[in-house]
Amino acid sequence: MPDGLRFAFGTLSVLPVRVDRWDRPTAGRAMLAAPVVGAVLGLIAAGAGAFAAWRAGGLLGAVAAVGALAALTRGLHLDGLADVADGLGSGKPAEDALRIMKQSDIGPFGVLTLLLVMLGQITALAGQFDASPGRGALAVLTAALAGRCALAWGCRRGVPAARPGGLGAAVAGTVPGLGAAAVSAGCALLLAAAGAGYGRQAWVWPAALAVGLGCAQLLLRRCVRRLDGITGDVLGATAETAATGALVALALIGTV
User: Fold this and answer.
1) 62-67 contacts, C-beta under 8 A, 24 or more apart
2) Crossing angle, helix 94-102 and helix 204-227, to 10 degrees?
3) Which of 75, 104, 175, 229 could lock 160 by a disulfide, CB 3.0 to 4.6 Å apart?
4) Is the pLDDT of residue 255 over 60?
């Protein structure tokens, strides 16, 4: 397995992959390869959700899929989302906000954000699984790909690190903008092809991906302005934001 792909799987999943190289060029390749991780984890979670929906209904299918994705990532992105919510919600200067984000506990902003995001994801997915297990599975894959494409955009050149240490410093500015655009376009084409089975609604899936990435970019811009750059927590938060945005978009436009 190439070093960049090892880095991606070893950092972004619980899958037992040994990481041998931690240099910045390898980190950049890993962030470009992040959608591959998203595809693998998304397919696993989609399978779990589709089986649960087939046996017990859309709501349980949605819970199974969201829970599977959280377990497959050790809750890494959810933890980042909660930390960023606490940091931004504190209203304190960048240095103090970063200190709050680094603490091991979760504050009220983080708890509320996690609750709303997970409820939103489960509710949006339940509607897709109620339509059909296959449609729900494709929605899970769309969310997983959106979250990992957001990582590539968050690490593009010109986006600084908020502090000198940690994962954020290792990956910040390592991805060419054209590379991030290329992997996102590839994921959009994949989703369009997979969604072709739904006839005239094939455009819905890449559109949802684009909406999710747009939401992630809004959060990224806010974090860069507020924190003077990105951290690993910020990247995790953008991943969850992109996934949630994509699922909400599917809920709103998926019946067109």
Assistant:
1) 62/121, 62/122, 62/123, 62/124, 62/125, 62/126, 62/128, 62/129, 62/136, 63/122, 65/125, 65/129, 65/136, 65/140, 66/118, 66/121, 66/122, 66/125
2) 120
3) 229
4) no
Residue type, 171: V
Tell me if residue 214 falls in helix, strand or coil.
helix
Point out which residues pair with 156 in neighbouring strands.
Answer: 175
Backbone angle region of 23, left / alpha / beta, with phi > 0 → left and psi within -120 to 50 → alpha? beta
pTM assigned to the model? 0.94
pLDDT at position 175: 94
Going by the DSSP 8-state scheme, the letter that residue 158 receives in this structure is: T
Compute and round to an integer the Cα radius of gyration of the chain. Answer: 17
Q: What is the mean pLDDT of the chain?
A: 92
